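Colleagues,

For the teaching module next term, I've prepared a clean inverse folding example: a structure given as C-alpha cells, and then the sequence designed for it. I'd like students to try predicting residues themselves before seeing the answer, so please don't circulate the second half yet.
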C-alpha cells in the first residue's frame, strides 16, 4: 500500500475512477487514525498512548492497486471539498433501481 500526500492521493484516485469507468470497481474506506503503526498491546502490558490530534486514514483500492492518505484535522475542510467534488464528477456510472421489482414486493407482502 502506498501512503501519499492529500493532493497526490486525489490525483491518483481520479486515475483509478477513470480506469474503472467501463468495468470494475473502486473500494474506499475511511477510519480514525491515531498514528500507531503497530497493533495495540494486550492486557498484560499497560502502555498508554495519547495521539497528538485526531486524524483520518483514507484508503482506496482497485484490484491490486492500493493507495492511502492520512488527513489531519487542520486539512479536513480543504480535503473534504476536493474529495466531494471528485466523487460527484465520477458517480455518473451508477445504475438506477428497477421500479417494477419494488412494486412486486409490496404486493406480495399485502
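(Answer key — instructors only)
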Amino acid at each position: 500500500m502506498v501512503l501519499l500526500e492529500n493532493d497526490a492521493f486525489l490525483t491518483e484516485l481520479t486515475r483509478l475512477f477513470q480506469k474503472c469507468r467501463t468495468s470494475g470497481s473502486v473500494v474506499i474506506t475511511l477510519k480514525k487514525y491515531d498514528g500507531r503503526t503497530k497493533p495495540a498491546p494486550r492486557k498484560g502490558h499497560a502502555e498508554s498512548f495519547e495521539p497528538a490530534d485526531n486524524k483520518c486514514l483514507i484508503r482506496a483500492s482497485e484490484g491490486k492497486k492500493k493507495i492511502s492518505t492520512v488527513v489531519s484535522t487542520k486539512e479536513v475542510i480543504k480535503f473534504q471539498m476536493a474529495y466531494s467534488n471528485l466523487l460527484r464528477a465520477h458517480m455518473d456510472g451508477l445504475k438506477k433501481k428497477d421500479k417494477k421489482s419494488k412494486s412486486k414486493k409490496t404486493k406480495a407482502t399485502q
